[in-house]
User: What shape does this take?
Amino acid sequence: MAILARSAYMHFMFNDLTSPASYITTRRSCRPRDMIAPGPDEPQIRAMVSTALRTPDHGKLTPWRVVHVTSDQRARLSEKLQAAYLAEKPNAGRLELEAMDMFAHHAPELLVVLYSPKQSRKIPEWEQELSAGAFCMNILHAAHIEGFVGGWITGWPAYSESVRDFFGQSSERVAGYIYLGSPAKPLEERPRPHLGDILSSWNG
Ligand SMILES: Cc1cc2nc3c(=O)[nH]c(=O)nc-3n(C[C@H](O)[C@H](O)[C@H](O)COP(=O)(O)O)c2cc1C
Assistant: This one.
């Protein structure tokens, strides 16, 4: 009965901030294209990124950083994205270029998270990559805790080196585009793995 009640509840309320437990068990991203105003203002964005500074980071290397693309920079981002796309794919069609334009204009706010690995004799790059993923996750958590929704996407703009150069150095990679705003429509549940497929006891 308790299980039934809980699963029904989870279908109706996401990012429930009543308690830490209710939040973490109802966490849900929003698709960037489904986000509308309001989005976080500058102090709220600073608060979110400050929260994410508590991400686990072996050796204190901070292999991550964030570039905020402000709303008045979105048209410029669209132009640059489309130019970079055309340079790489000269036969691109109108729809592909429109997709780049939409990518640049989704949601009220956009953070570009860069994976910024540091030279270390002690800490392998793999651990720095894990930390960068955790950093992105913590930005999402922080956005939800501020009462907004977040969405972490990648796609072509995350893998193009010329787009990476808009934001960072050749040693860096785009870990994700994190969009922030409010949901335009109710969030819907997404199927989750079965616990039994994920958790096992060691049979050593
Ligand atoms: C590294 C990474 C890249 C992602 N890129 C995309 C993407 O390009 N497009 C997309 O629809 N979802 C992408 N996702 C998935 C969404 O961020 C999100 O996790 C998913 O829609 C499920 O929502 P949830 O966070 O509520 O589980 C990506 C997730 C990760 C971890």
